[in-house]
Amino acid sequence: MASETAPTTGPTDTDAQTRRPRVAVVGASGYAGGETLRLLSGHPGVEVATVTAHSSAGKRLSEVAPHIDLGHDPVLQETSVETLSGHDVVVLALPHGESGRIAAALREEYPDVLVLDLAADHRLESAEDWAEYYRSEHSGTWTYGMPELPLADGTRQRELLRTAREIAVPGCNATAVSLALAPLVRKGLIDHQVLNAVLPVGYSGAGRSAKQHLLFSEASGTAAPYAVGGSHRHVPEVLQNLRRASGLTREDGLRLTFTPVLVPISRGILAVCTAPVTDGTTTEDLLAALNEDYGDEHFVTVLPEGVFPATGEVTGANTIRIGAAVDRHSGQATVISAIDNLVKGTAGAALQSMNLALGLPETVGLTRTALAP
Amino acid sequence: MASETAPTTGPTDTDAQTRRPRVAVVGASGYAGGETLRLLSGHPGVEVATVTAHSSAGKRLSEVAPHIDLGHDPVLQETSVETLSGHDVVVLALPHGESGRIAAALREEYPDVLVLDLAADHRLESAEDWAEYYRSEHSGTWTYGMPELPLADGTRQRELLRTAREIAVPGCNATAVSLALAPLVRKGLIDHQVLNAVLPVGYSGAGRSAKQHLLFSEASGTAAPYAVGGSHRHVPEVLQNLRRASGLTREDGLRLTFTPVLVPISRGILAVCTAPVTDGTTTEDLLAALNEDYGDEHFVTVLPEGVFPATGEVTGANTIRIGAAVDRHSGQATVISAIDNLVKGTAGAALQSMNLALGLPETVGLTRTALAP
Amino acid sequence: MASETAPTTGPTDTDAQTRRPRVAVVGASGYAGGETLRLLSGHPGVEVATVTAHSSAGKRLSEVAPHIDLGHDPVLQETSVETLSGHDVVVLALPHGESGRIAAALREEYPDVLVLDLAADHRLESAEDWAEYYRSEHSGTWTYGMPELPLADGTRQRELLRTAREIAVPGCNATAVSLALAPLVRKGLIDHQVLNAVLPVGYSGAGRSAKQHLLFSEASGTAAPYAVGGSHRHVPEVLQNLRRASGLTREDGLRLTFTPVLVPISRGILAVCTAPVTDGTTTEDLLAALNEDYGDEHFVTVLPEGVFPATGEVTGANTIRIGAAVDRHSGQATVISAIDNLVKGTAGAALQSMNLALGLPETVGLTRTALAP
Amino acid sequence: MASETAPTTGPTDTDAQTRRPRVAVVGASGYAGGETLRLLSGHPGVEVATVTAHSSAGKRLSEVAPHIDLGHDPVLQETSVETLSGHDVVVLALPHGESGRIAAALREEYPDVLVLDLAADHRLESAEDWAEYYRSEHSGTWTYGMPELPLADGTRQRELLRTAREIAVPGCNATAVSLALAPLVRKGLIDHQVLNAVLPVGYSGAGRSAKQHLLFSEASGTAAPYAVGGSHRHVPEVLQNLRRASGLTREDGLRLTFTPVLVPISRGILAVCTAPVTDGTTTEDLLAALNEDYGDEHFVTVLPEGVFPATGEVTGANTIRIGAAVDRHSGQATVISAIDNLVKGTAGAALQSMNLALGLPETVGLTRTALAP
Q1: ipTM surpassing 0.90, yes or no?
Q2: In D, residues 221-250, which contact C (CB 8 Å cutoff)?
């Protein structure tokens, strides 16, 4: 194959009517950026025009991500406002902080470009929450990229995304927990003051930077909790989502205990959420509430009674699968969701929101079929 | 090496004063039986005299467990009361039900032999609990083999084991949860009506029988919950332990939600236990309670504030490591314990109890050092 | 999502001109059948009309393969000539032997249907080879489904597939080794009498039947060779391919030592092939020969000098990646290829051949982009 | 447990007659150093007096290696000639180069101390080989720590170790290949000019430094070759061993093609070695030669005909298991060995040699029983 030949651009491509939106992916050598490119490689509605990186700038994409075939093999550019000019869409796959800085510069220069930020910088509306959990200055709040989130007024987050030009892509763990719990908190089926989530999670969520505790030999054969005791940064994001979904306020005592556990898988989050049920709530009630909110959602699968999801069922897919049960002995509900942290938890969510903001069909370039085994 | 030569038995071995107790391991081709043999291969105080199996009977040990070196390579015998005669100790590593049957026959024939049952048959004191969770007839209640369990009267379970001739070895998940929670329930530091445990667990706990969902290709890359919603058989066992530790009765509303999640490790259980704290309980209170009960325990390590265990730290060791914290936002305690399900959770616990019952030093043949990475 | 609704079939679908070919997949609950369905779920040119199984017949597809979304959720049928009637294409994903029997019955009844056999039954042309390696009666020889294989007459195997109605899909290991070595044996660059291949392979190649040595706990943490010493059934298949590619005959002493090693990955074959070079062969010669044969091949990537493939670069993709070097100290060539055994090694190869036989573009429904990490 | 209390030293310990040798382990925070400590924690004949590290100096051992229990929890010292004074044994677990420097300083100051170097610095006798493969200055040649290596004069390497004060511990891959091939090359059963070894290897062999390609997410699900084409540094070491074992000289054309493949296991090397057989060599001949050389070796297991080793059978053990067969079709021998790279390949080999040099029983502190599953 002639892998390094750039795609030929014929005259029809210059026709403004038919030209596909040009996308730049910033931070293409990391996992989130790479996954964005993987999905874009199969997206018929947009064109990957530019890819950038930091320490890998100057290399070809095939050197840092040999699994991706864009049809050509671009050289990774330095990340700058200049290299990002002339695009319709910019996807920022950077560490938080860096993301906020380049976003601010970019918005000033190119106010019309659609920017999607995969980092946390623009997710929280509360500057106090930001300061407490991220210990830096707040960059502002963008439209939250979780189309399926039911809102207290009966609409969906989806509607807000159709006109957005600045989209904050949700955190992966926050996605798994928020979508699992929102319908139940909305309906008052569980005690929102005693929410609990334990999340076996894969290593790709920790990024591609070389750190000792992420080495294969350290990770293999162990289950290792982190951020125990309340420090995880997705906690305020989940609570914000649950407030938006339910209309509860900060005074209503929404409280969540949140414990991620690294387990030796590359991709995947299993959110095991529990809470005492309110009087009389049954398994059927839980499933009815989930089906009511998600029955029409293309990328949400509510499982039948007695069936619970595993992360291996969603690898590479943009789906979230959710099962629920009430334990009659303990009086608690257990709601379990599974996602691929890099797809539904990151790059897939970004593309889904991008599709909405570009006026494309919401599902284009995304799949419900996973890779297994 | 001449691996098939039987060990020579010199004259001093025939001296009744110094003769080492003869041990039979029943079900040696499974994981629990194999692990018992692995540990016994390094135990200086007893002699492995007989190993038995079912479908593997007639094979040599090296064919079913090539990793074990007993100094000789015994042929696996059929399991029968006859092949088990003439031993001082019999360790039953059989599926529950089978275990109860052979135990009954054995006790009748050889009332003096020390029998340790690795299966569940003799753990529960309540025939009602047994009937509900195991759906078969109760085999009776043996002395529970968890030496470190603090009892409501201020003693330890250890004392009961010194004179026991029938020992029910605890369930692996039950060990991880019971030892983590007992000191806190005893002291009333957490709400015992809203206990919760989510346990990433390894595949060896599911045994060595060939089942599709245990295949490498099914297990690799996934986190898969099971027994969701209250059906796990270790629930009544944990509650029984917590009642013994605290003096609470069945009327006091001890309630536990329990969700194991299979993750792709062979060995290991990480018990992530949560519960609302009672008024004013701090992280220091949790750690003080744990240290008070376990400070002198050789095989229990209570970790310093801010440190939590991972299963990879205990692989092959007979230790349980425990960390704890109070989340000041959510008002919940998180207590996390890690064990090797085959050692502290099964075979190590058996040997520790056996040592007590034989009057040997409790720690002989067991190690606090794990294999890592 | 309304996952169990069958797709609506509008009037235009009945138009014979535009009707998509109807495909039946036999053995859909296994890995090869499942992977065929996974790929077909994204194939726009054909319709999955029927899926069958043996012990899983009567279940819905979502029960045995929850990762696949065909747009509807078919019930698995019993496998019989009747359930397979009325299709344009039948893909047999059965154990060898079973495959030959149903194929014979099917061909008799429906001589026009395109049948692809993923099993070994129809790969070998020599009944003697078949008898020696498979110890059963030979079922005959079908057109071999390896489009890229260069033939001694200067054509490709591709040409034979355009008119085939009976296609024997190659073995996965045979694909990895044959494509790596064929160009070099053709050109006489290596000593074809001292060929050697060692293949770290994943567990999915061993199928989904529950066998003890395939359990996660057995497989995790080990590298385990099998079929050592010449007994592997892909040996005669590779030699047949190399003869076809080179024009060498059985008298020319083609000889291959072949050692697969199970390693703890689900998917992937890395074929490490070595042979003494003939006089003066350099690394450049090896790469030139590979590029000459494969430069135009969409699904073959010949890597630059000094770069070698890893299986993680092809997971889910229909590509084979090949690197080569001459060791100047040892005088041997090392040629390494990587494939996904379930895609390029099985289901992807089947679809590629099906596309050719149906007159569709060869690459439709197949991708060069892999899933990583 | 009171883990930070230093061991009490009673009066008899001060008795020079019975004092246990004091050992210092240099580089205790890496995998080789950690494994040395793990094994020493169960070694009754020596005392771990000092542990040192570089970037981790100042931490307690439990912070960098929480799986090890020495009975006390030492603080890691800086590595210097001063901190290493007053010991009987110093084990250097450092990167090559660093190892040579500290060794030189140490020998000058304390000529009587027994030094074992786990790095490569002192393995090769040829300064030319060293220069070619390591591109630095040669540090000299120490006694090679492979007790079982048969020598051309009919003795074993063991004899040389009894009086050694400077021991170069072998490379892990070199151990697996050398012990597998030495008996066959000695007897002339295989063509020593066409030796080939492909080695699926685990990640712990690459060390504990944080590098991107060693991350779990990179390593999981892939088989990745490296050092392809002759550049691996263990090649000259293997050839040196085979010359010593056989009496062949550099002029005799010993040639080895050597390809390691990283596979997702932490520990383990499977050396798949092949070579054309010389006239008439049978499987029985191979096994007879192996048994002749290793029949009395405690840590070498030659497997029966038809049985081949897997790395999972030796995890944590100091054993090497070897199987062999002649492929009658291809005329090649396949000899496969399995070791734990950190034990028989590094720390176990070091302790075995140390035992010899200290006049202790060779096997003390080492085990033939592995951890499985």
Answers
A1: yes
A2: 221-226, 228-230, 235
